[in-house]
Amino acid sequence: MMHPVLNSPPLPGVPRNRRVMVAVSGGIDSTALLHALVGSGFRKLVVVHLDHGLRGRAGAGDAVFVKKLARRYALPFIGGKADVAGLARARKISIETAAREARYRFFAKCARETRCRTLVLAHHADDQVETFLFNLMRGGGTGMGGMRPRAVRAIDGVKLEILRPWLGVWRMEIAEYAAREKLRYREDATNASPDHTRNRIRSRILPMLAQEFGRAVTKALWRAADVLAAQQEWIDEVLPPAGDELPVSGLRALPEALQRIAIHEWLRRHHTPQISYRLVETVREMVPAEATKAKVNLPAGRYARRRAGVLFVEGGRR
Amino acid sequence: MMHPVLNSPPLPGVPRNRRVMVAVSGGIDSTALLHALVGSGFRKLVVVHLDHGLRGRAGAGDAVFVKKLARRYALPFIGGKADVAGLARARKISIETAAREARYRFFAKCARETRCRTLVLAHHADDQVETFLFNLMRGGGTGMGGMRPRAVRAIDGVKLEILRPWLGVWRMEIAEYAAREKLRYREDATNASPDHTRNRIRSRILPMLAQEFGRAVTKALWRAADVLAAQQEWIDEVLPPAGDELPVSGLRALPEALQRIAIHEWLRRHHTPQISYRLVETVREMVPAEATKAKVNLPAGRYARRRAGVLFVEGGRR
Fold it and tell me: Which fold would CATH assign to domain A4-126+139-193?
């Protein structure tokens, strides 16, 4: 029997005969999700697994486990291996960023091989809260909110629909489900996140917040992450593509309020400190076709300028 | 000499001869702000002070202090007294909500008396971070972001422009300024916040976050609060007025992405759990003039319906 919160069917709106990739690490979350998907009658699942090369022999063991799991369900399996540590060194990026990049490139490769454009990930409600806090603590450069239950991502020329059907299901509920269904999974595969900040959020920050404010605080953070992720998604959708320059014609096509959001976002990406309403309005005076203003002072000795149909930032220290 | 971060002049864009009310509690922040405003040549300030009736004789002492301060600067003073505890009991609202309500009613009364439509508040960067976390912990029902440096609020029929010029200035910087200028202020007036959550955020949560992640985390939270407050403001600006019913014609006038934000916000206000992209899109199918769909299932046995040009929610438990 399916636990009510583990939505049955777990992919609302997706027909059971659609070919769908499922990313399975071998940890409890993705092993349980695969079990639930099979149990709800999804027939054309493709199990994909990337060994990040960060856990040595344990990582190889995870791969073997997931391959066997797929065979038991009579599902096709695609395994891959990445050298995430090497990638991080070579590109001078964090292990976590390198891991994510390697993962998505692998998913894109699988999508091409299988001609499958839908990928299911096992992120759950606790992941959502941790991701949200993680983004907050890092300063909200990109993607302030949490993850979306449905997102479309273009990777290496492949447009992938990413579904996270368990974003509203808590870790504890998955654990109960796994226990009830007597699932076997790899103990270490789940929490292999190499990121210290994320581990601290999970092991120290969240318990402390719950202790100070009660358990409800986690749900409050979940709701905030959800709302903000939706807002961010829709804001991204209406904004001109991110870039150094902001095309004036694109701005003019937007309603005033969205012009403000677009300019605010653009100034933010240029690391402008203290973006006031007044500053945004002053920059916006360069937008109309008949505008005579072509230069606006920014903090730290920089300028926003209009020339050849685009706004750009120049001068000062970066 | 003015500290560079304590913006000089502290009200960018406001002419020095504009009549402006300044809310002064007698605590360090508002006492310093008043000093800075006078020092930057603002001539027509009106000092307003509300005794919340929560601090007994100390509150009366604050009022006397602020009145004398105004006299020293040769500025008009308006004092008021509220029974916040009684208001909270009578209206069954929290002390903090009652205090805010009493304060804004008092400000509106002062605005009418003085025919002054601009109010300056001394909220600073630490207040901003605390407010942001406070809203997050409470569940993001209303106003997810922080405060805005400029906001317009209608209270009791009075449209008040609220300026917070020090939202980017940290408590420590104000303390340094007050020490340098040898300002006298009431020690207790500032942190008289009756709210436990807010006190806990200040005294325990923020120090703990700084210890775990370094001092930069406070700045990161400040930036997040700032960006989200701006987004929320602009979203509120483009959305149809909040209400139980959502007029279809208002929705149709919006670009698609904003229709989604509006519907998401509306469903959220109706306490709809787990608002998926798909649900929003399904509700949106009722928007076009030629739509045949007039009923959409919501979680928990409720429905969104279209009738007589509006969308509304009915059924289920609330």
Answer: Rossmann fold (3.40.50)
Sign of CA dihedral A220, A226, A227, A231: positive
C-beta of residue B295 within 8 angstroms of C-beta of residue B287: no
- Tell me how far apart the alpha carbons of residues A264 and A270 are, in angstroms, rounded to a whole number: 10
Contact between A29 and A178 under an 8 Å Cβ cutoff? The reply is no
Domain ranges of chain B: 4-126+139-193, 245-314
Minimal CA–CA distance to A101: which of A123, A86, A118? A86
The closest alpha carbon to A84, from A111, A52, A125, belongs to A52
Determine if residue B41 is left, alpha or beta; phi over 0 gives left, psi from -120 to 50 gives alpha, anything else beta: left
* Averaged pLDDT for residues B239-246: 73
User: How large is the ipTM?
Assistant: 0.75
Token look-up 């790899």 returns A186
Distance of alpha carbon A155 from alpha carbon A105, whole angstroms: 7
With 0-12 / 13-18 / 19 or more C-beta atoms within 10 angstroms meaning exposed / middle / buried, residue A241 is: exposed
Kindly determine whether residue B148 and residue A277, on different chains, have CB atoms separated by under 8 Å: yes
- Given phi > 0 = left and psi -120 to 50 = alpha, else beta, which region is B182? left
Q: Which of B144, B223, B277 sits opposite A227 (nearest CB)?
A: B144
Q: Is residue A21 over pLDDT 90? A: yes
The nearest CA of chain B is from the CA of A69 a distance in Å of 31
Query: What pLDDT, in 10s, does the model give residues A257-267?
Result: 778 878 888 88
Selected for mutation to probe chain B from A212, A279, A296 (highest B CB count within 10 Å) is A212
Residue A67 identity (one-letter amino acid): K
Nearest to A268 by CA among A280, A257, A250, A254: A280
What is the least distance, in Å, from the CA of A274 to any CA of chain B? 7
Beta carbons of B136 and A197 less than 8 Å apart: no
- The DSSP line for A180-243 is HTT----TTTTT----HHHHHIIIIIHHHHHHHH-THHHHHHHHHHHHHHHHHHHHHHHSPPP-
Please report where in the chains the tokens 């509120």 appear, as a residue.
Answer: B236
Q: How far apart are CA B232 and CA B147, in angstroms?
A: 10
Q: Determine which of B167, B195, B227 to mutate to test the interface with A (most A C-beta atoms within 10 Å).
A: B227
Instruction: Tell me how far apart the alpha carbons of residues B216 and B257 are, in angstroms, rounded to a whole number.
Output: 34
What φ, ψ does residue B139 adopt, rounded to 5°?
110, 10
The answer to whether residues A275 and A286 touch, using CB atoms and an 8 Å cutoff, is: no
Contact present, A228 and B228 (Cβ < 8 Å): yes
Q: Are B147 and B167 in contact (CB under 8 A)?
A: yes
Mean of all residue pLDDT scores within chain A = 86
Contact predicate A99/A50, CB 8 Å: no
Looking at the DSSP assignment, which residues form a beta bridge with residue B4?
none
Mean pLDDT of A252-281: 79
B295-298: strand order across its sheet: B246-247, B310-314, B302-307, B295-298
Alpha-carbon distance B193 to A307, whole Å? 50
- Average pLDDT of chain B? 86
Q: Based on DSSP, count helices (H) and strands (E) in chain A, helices before strands.
A: 12, 10
What is the phi/psi pair of residue B187, to 5°? -60, -40
Q: Positive or negative, the Cα torsion across A151, A155, A160, A165?
A: negative
